[in-house]
Amino acid sequence: MKLSKNPSSKMTRSISEIFSGGKAVQRVLKNIAGGGLVLVVLAGCGVGSLMGGGSDAATQLAETSPTAAQISQVQSTALPAIATQCPPIKVRLGGEAIFSYVNNRVSDAQALKYQAVIDGQSRNCVVSNGLITVKMGVVGRLILGPSNTRNSETLPVRFVVERNEVAVFSQLYEIPLTVTPPDRSTEFVKVVENVAIPYLGGENIVIWVGFDPRS
Fold it and tell me: Among 31, 36, 61, 63, which residue's Cβ finds the most Cβ atoms within 10 Å?
């Protein structure tokens, strides 16, 4: 398995130190993938209008899944498809990290409540009867800031499956985390299973994941 870390020259020194190891992360991602999968390098990943700003993005980000009619139509008209590879999973540009400040005082380091980073992502797929069934997951780290006194936060992480630039699955997951003193950081893992995507062959399918602070 190839493990890629999100490049970010703007991360604080504490983050780079925390992620300098990575062996535990590799073990978690191997479990998510079931072995034999490849993690994707995140640098330069863009998503166009998907998960971007504006009213169109808001429409695309609505919780979405293929309808029973869509699945039935593909199953009844398509020959069994064999995927040559699982769709890539990428972290959306700007969604690799999230920061929260007291009263939005972003220029005041002492006002930082927390920061969190997605450290890696993986997926695997099963193709049968015109459907790709995807299992996907991410691992990351929550780091509490100087102004955080409650030792717990909830992180908003969104998974999107895009087929030919149209979101066929979009779901926000709220991940509650608690940091046990005297620690000031903790890892998180989120796995999403059994996402069925209609597949005829030749489609451009991409899995996106990222923090979604606008939710």
Answer: 61
